[in-house]
Fold this sequence. Notes:
Spore Coat Polysaccharide Biosynthesis Protein SpsA, Chain A, Glyco_trans_2-like
Amino acid sequence: MDLSIIIVNYETYDLTKQTIESVINHDQPFEYDIYLVDNGSKDGSIDKLKKRFLKESEDGLIKFIINIENRGFAFANNLALQEIKSKYILLLNSDTVVVNNCLEDSLNYMNYHKDVGALGCKVVLPDSTLDKACRRSFPDFNVSFYRMTGLSRLFPKSERFGRYNLTYLNEDETYEVDCIVGAFMLVRSQTIQEVGFLDESFFMYGEDIDWCYRIKAANWKIIYYSDAKIIHYKGASNSKKQNKRLTYEFYRAMYLFYNKHYKDGYPWITTAATYLGIWGICSLKMFKNYITR
Protein backbone atom coordinates (compact mmCIF):
# COMPACT_ATOMS: atom_id res chain seq x y z
CA MET A 1 0.00 0.00 0.00
CA ASP A 2 1.33 3.46 -0.89
CA LEU A 3 -0.63 5.44 1.69
CA SER A 4 -2.75 4.80 4.77
CA ILE A 5 -4.89 7.68 6.03
CA ILE A 6 -5.88 7.86 9.70
CA ILE A 7 -9.01 9.85 10.58
CA VAL A 8 -10.24 10.09 14.18
CA ASN A 9 -13.96 10.61 14.70
CA TYR A 10 -15.49 11.92 17.89
CA GLU A 11 -19.19 12.70 17.53
CA THR A 12 -18.74 14.52 14.21
CA TYR A 13 -20.70 12.51 11.65
CA ASP A 14 -21.24 15.30 9.09
CA LEU A 15 -17.66 16.57 9.28
CA THR A 16 -16.07 13.12 9.17
CA LYS A 17 -18.30 12.07 6.28
CA GLN A 18 -17.25 15.21 4.38
CA THR A 19 -13.57 14.51 5.02
CA ILE A 20 -13.75 10.93 3.80
CA GLU A 21 -15.74 11.90 0.72
CA SER A 22 -13.17 14.54 -0.20
CA VAL A 23 -10.66 11.70 -0.46
CA ILE A 24 -12.63 8.86 -2.03
CA ASN A 25 -14.55 11.03 -4.51
CA HIS A 26 -11.28 12.05 -6.15
CA ASP A 27 -9.58 9.62 -8.51
CA GLN A 28 -6.36 8.94 -6.61
CA PRO A 29 -3.57 7.51 -8.82
CA PHE A 30 -2.04 5.41 -6.02
CA GLU A 31 -3.06 2.62 -3.67
CA TYR A 32 -4.46 3.75 -0.34
CA ASP A 33 -6.74 2.81 2.50
CA ILE A 34 -8.42 4.69 5.33
CA TYR A 35 -8.38 3.82 9.02
CA LEU A 36 -11.37 5.44 10.71
CA VAL A 37 -10.87 5.41 14.46
CA ASP A 38 -13.87 6.28 16.63
CA ASN A 39 -12.90 7.78 19.97
CA GLY A 40 -15.76 6.59 22.14
CA SER A 41 -18.57 8.55 20.45
CA LYS A 42 -21.92 8.38 22.26
CA ASP A 43 -24.05 10.12 19.61
CA GLY A 44 -24.42 7.24 17.15
CA SER A 45 -22.08 8.89 14.63
CA ILE A 46 -19.92 5.80 14.17
CA ASP A 47 -22.95 3.64 13.37
CA LYS A 48 -24.05 6.15 10.75
CA LEU A 49 -20.55 6.26 9.29
CA LYS A 50 -20.46 2.46 9.06
CA LYS A 51 -23.77 2.53 7.22
CA ARG A 52 -22.72 5.37 4.88
CA PHE A 53 -19.43 3.68 3.95
CA LEU A 54 -20.59 0.07 4.04
CA LYS A 55 -19.49 -0.65 0.48
CA GLU A 56 -16.05 0.91 1.00
CA SER A 57 -15.67 -1.12 4.19
CA GLU A 58 -16.61 -4.37 2.45
CA ASP A 59 -14.13 -3.56 -0.33
CA GLY A 60 -11.35 -3.05 2.23
CA LEU A 61 -10.91 0.63 1.44
CA ILE A 62 -12.08 1.77 4.88
CA LYS A 63 -11.22 -0.03 8.11
CA PHE A 64 -13.01 0.80 11.36
CA ILE A 65 -11.39 0.82 14.80
CA ILE A 66 -13.73 1.43 17.74
CA ASN A 67 -12.68 2.79 21.13
CA ILE A 68 -15.08 2.40 24.04
CA GLU A 69 -13.78 5.64 25.58
CA ASN A 70 -11.99 8.79 24.49
CA ARG A 71 -8.37 8.41 25.53
CA GLY A 72 -7.02 11.19 23.36
CA PHE A 73 -5.90 11.96 19.82
CA ALA A 74 -2.49 10.31 20.16
CA PHE A 75 -3.93 7.10 21.61
CA ALA A 76 -6.49 6.84 18.81
CA ASN A 77 -3.92 7.36 16.05
CA ASN A 78 -1.52 4.89 17.64
CA LEU A 79 -4.15 2.15 17.48
CA ALA A 80 -4.17 2.50 13.70
CA LEU A 81 -0.40 2.95 13.44
CA GLN A 82 0.07 -0.47 15.05
CA GLU A 83 -1.76 -2.09 12.13
CA ILE A 84 -0.44 -0.08 9.17
CA LYS A 85 2.23 -1.43 6.81
CA SER A 86 2.07 1.28 4.13
CA LYS A 87 4.99 3.33 2.84
CA TYR A 88 3.41 6.59 4.01
CA ILE A 89 0.94 7.45 6.75
CA LEU A 90 -1.26 10.54 6.81
CA LEU A 91 -2.85 11.94 9.94
CA LEU A 92 -5.92 13.79 8.69
CA ASN A 93 -8.36 15.68 10.92
CA SER A 94 -12.04 14.86 10.71
CA ASP A 95 -12.85 18.55 10.15
CA THR A 96 -10.87 18.97 6.93
CA VAL A 97 -11.51 18.79 3.20
CA VAL A 98 -8.77 17.60 0.86
CA VAL A 99 -8.53 19.86 -2.19
CA ASN A 100 -7.87 18.59 -5.73
CA ASN A 101 -4.52 16.76 -6.15
CA CYS A 102 -3.30 17.45 -2.61
CA LEU A 103 -2.51 13.84 -1.76
CA GLU A 104 -0.91 12.97 -5.10
CA ASP A 105 1.30 16.06 -5.10
CA SER A 106 2.35 15.52 -1.48
CA LEU A 107 3.31 11.90 -2.13
CA ASN A 108 5.26 12.89 -5.23
CA TYR A 109 7.24 15.43 -3.22
CA MET A 110 8.08 12.82 -0.58
CA ASN A 111 9.07 10.29 -3.24
CA TYR A 112 11.51 12.74 -4.82
CA HIS A 113 12.94 14.00 -1.51
CA LYS A 114 14.14 10.97 0.42
CA ASP A 115 15.47 13.04 3.32
CA VAL A 116 11.99 14.34 4.23
CA GLY A 117 10.49 12.53 7.19
CA ALA A 118 7.24 14.49 7.44
CA LEU A 119 5.34 16.92 5.23
CA GLY A 120 2.54 19.37 5.95
CA CYS A 121 0.48 21.05 3.26
CA LYS A 122 -0.97 24.55 3.10
CA VAL A 123 -3.92 24.59 5.48
CA VAL A 124 -6.54 27.27 4.93
CA LEU A 125 -9.60 28.21 6.93
CA PRO A 126 -13.06 28.44 5.33
CA ASP A 127 -12.49 32.17 4.67
CA SER A 128 -9.36 31.22 2.63
CA THR A 129 -6.93 32.70 5.15
CA LEU A 130 -3.99 30.61 6.30
CA ASP A 131 -4.35 28.44 9.39
CA LYS A 132 -1.18 29.74 11.02
CA ALA A 133 -0.64 26.53 12.96
CA CYS A 134 0.34 24.67 9.77
CA ARG A 135 3.95 25.97 9.92
CA ARG A 136 5.68 26.68 13.20
CA SER A 137 8.91 26.89 15.12
CA PHE A 138 9.51 24.83 18.21
CA PRO A 139 8.16 26.68 21.27
CA ASP A 140 11.40 27.24 23.13
CA PHE A 141 11.55 29.89 25.85
CA ASN A 142 12.22 32.85 23.53
CA VAL A 143 9.64 31.88 20.90
CA SER A 144 7.00 31.30 23.57
CA PHE A 145 7.88 34.54 25.35
CA TYR A 146 7.41 36.58 22.16
CA ARG A 147 4.08 34.83 21.63
CA MET A 148 2.74 35.27 25.17
CA THR A 149 3.77 38.93 25.40
CA GLY A 150 2.11 39.76 22.09
CA LEU A 151 5.35 40.75 20.35
CA SER A 152 4.72 38.15 17.64
CA ARG A 153 1.40 39.83 16.81
CA LEU A 154 2.84 43.34 16.94
CA PHE A 155 5.75 42.47 14.65
CA PRO A 156 4.59 39.54 12.49
CA LYS A 157 7.11 40.28 9.73
CA SER A 158 10.05 40.26 12.12
CA GLU A 159 12.32 37.24 11.74
CA ARG A 160 13.00 37.45 15.47
CA PHE A 161 9.52 38.04 16.87
CA GLY A 162 7.49 36.21 14.21
CA ARG A 163 9.04 32.80 14.67
CA TYR A 164 6.09 31.17 16.47
CA ASN A 165 3.98 30.89 13.30
CA LEU A 166 6.73 31.89 10.84
CA THR A 167 4.62 34.89 9.81
CA TYR A 168 7.66 36.53 8.19
CA LEU A 169 7.77 33.81 5.51
CA ASN A 170 5.74 33.65 2.29
CA GLU A 171 2.84 31.21 2.75
CA ASP A 172 2.94 30.36 -0.98
CA GLU A 173 6.47 29.00 -0.92
CA THR A 174 7.84 25.63 0.15
CA TYR A 175 10.54 25.34 2.81
CA GLU A 176 11.83 23.40 5.79
CA VAL A 177 10.19 24.15 9.15
CA ASP A 178 10.39 22.87 12.71
CA CYS A 179 6.87 21.54 12.92
CA ILE A 180 3.61 21.09 11.06
CA VAL A 181 0.08 20.57 12.33
CA GLY A 182 -1.56 17.22 13.08
CA ALA A 183 -4.58 18.20 10.96
CA PHE A 184 -2.51 17.10 7.95
CA MET A 185 0.71 15.28 8.71
CA LEU A 186 2.20 13.02 6.04
CA VAL A 187 4.91 10.86 7.57
CA ARG A 188 7.27 8.29 6.08
CA SER A 189 6.84 4.86 7.70
CA GLN A 190 10.63 4.47 7.91
CA THR A 191 10.68 7.64 10.00
CA ILE A 192 8.03 6.28 12.37
CA GLN A 193 10.03 3.08 12.77
CA GLU A 194 12.97 5.19 13.93
CA VAL A 195 11.24 7.69 16.24
CA GLY A 196 8.28 5.69 17.52
CA PHE A 197 4.57 6.45 17.75
CA LEU A 198 2.83 9.54 19.11
CA ASP A 199 3.32 10.27 22.81
CA GLU A 200 0.05 9.40 24.54
CA SER A 201 0.86 11.70 27.47
CA PHE A 202 -0.57 14.45 25.26
CA PHE A 203 -4.35 14.22 25.13
CA MET A 204 -5.23 16.40 22.13
CA TYR A 205 -2.63 19.15 21.78
CA GLY A 206 1.15 19.04 21.49
CA GLU A 207 1.51 15.48 20.24
CA ASP A 208 2.20 16.77 16.72
CA ILE A 209 4.89 19.19 17.92
CA ASP A 210 6.48 16.49 20.05
CA TRP A 211 6.51 14.09 17.09
CA CYS A 212 8.11 16.73 14.89
CA TYR A 213 10.74 17.39 17.54
CA ARG A 214 11.68 13.72 17.61
CA ILE A 215 11.63 13.49 13.82
CA LYS A 216 14.06 16.40 13.46
CA ALA A 217 16.23 15.02 16.27
CA ALA A 218 16.57 11.86 14.15
CA ASN A 219 17.94 14.06 11.31
CA TRP A 220 14.85 13.98 9.08
CA LYS A 221 13.60 17.13 7.38
CA ILE A 222 10.11 18.50 7.94
CA ILE A 223 8.61 20.41 5.02
CA TYR A 224 5.83 22.95 4.67
CA TYR A 225 4.58 22.22 1.14
CA SER A 226 2.49 25.09 -0.21
CA ASP A 227 1.55 23.44 -3.54
CA ALA A 228 -0.89 21.09 -1.78
CA LYS A 229 -3.91 22.38 0.14
CA ILE A 230 -6.69 21.37 2.50
CA ILE A 231 -9.53 23.36 4.08
CA HIS A 232 -9.68 23.18 7.87
CA TYR A 233 -13.01 23.82 9.59
CA LYS A 234 -11.05 24.57 12.72
CA GLY A 235 -12.92 24.21 15.99
CA ALA A 236 -16.05 22.86 14.32
CA SER A 237 -15.45 19.46 15.90
CA ASN A 238 -15.12 20.86 19.43
CA SER A 239 -18.24 21.04 21.53
CA LYS A 240 -18.83 24.24 23.49
CA LYS A 241 -19.27 22.03 26.53
CA GLN A 242 -15.62 21.03 26.18
CA ASN A 243 -14.21 24.56 26.36
CA LYS A 244 -12.87 24.14 29.90
CA ARG A 245 -11.23 20.80 29.09
CA LEU A 246 -9.80 22.08 25.81
CA THR A 247 -8.25 25.12 27.46
CA TYR A 248 -6.70 23.00 30.19
CA GLU A 249 -5.32 20.42 27.74
CA PHE A 250 -3.84 23.16 25.53
CA TYR A 251 -1.74 24.55 28.37
CA ARG A 252 -1.01 21.14 29.87
CA ALA A 253 0.52 20.22 26.50
CA MET A 254 2.86 23.22 26.79
CA TYR A 255 3.86 22.07 30.26
CA LEU A 256 4.50 18.50 29.09
CA PHE A 257 6.51 19.59 26.06
CA TYR A 258 8.71 21.95 28.08
CA ASN A 259 9.39 19.30 30.73
CA LYS A 260 10.20 16.67 28.13
CA HIS A 261 12.47 18.65 25.82
CA TYR A 262 13.65 21.90 27.44
CA LYS A 263 13.61 21.73 31.23
CA ASP A 264 17.07 20.20 31.62
CA GLY A 265 18.61 22.82 29.35
CA TYR A 266 17.44 25.90 31.26
CA PRO A 267 18.24 27.25 34.76
CA TRP A 268 15.60 26.85 37.46
CA ILE A 269 14.56 30.49 37.29
CA THR A 270 13.68 30.13 33.61
CA THR A 271 11.67 27.00 34.38
CA ALA A 272 9.86 28.80 37.19
CA ALA A 273 9.01 31.70 34.86
CA THR A 274 7.80 29.23 32.22
CA TYR A 275 5.52 27.42 34.67
CA LEU A 276 4.16 30.73 35.93
CA GLY A 277 3.45 31.88 32.38
CA ILE A 278 1.77 28.63 31.33
CA TRP A 279 -0.48 28.11 34.34
CA GLY A 280 -1.07 31.81 34.91
CA ILE A 281 -2.42 32.34 31.40
CA CYS A 282 -4.34 29.07 31.61
CA SER A 283 -6.07 30.26 34.78
CA LEU A 284 -6.92 33.63 33.22
CA LYS A 285 -8.36 31.96 30.12
CA MET A 286 -10.50 29.60 32.13
CA PHE A 287 -11.72 32.42 34.37
CA LYS A 288 -12.58 34.49 31.29
CA ASN A 289 -14.53 31.56 29.81
CA TYR A 290 -16.39 31.13 33.10
CA ILE A 291 -17.33 34.83 33.24
CA THR A 292 -18.43 34.76 29.59
CA ARG A 293 -20.74 31.80 30.20
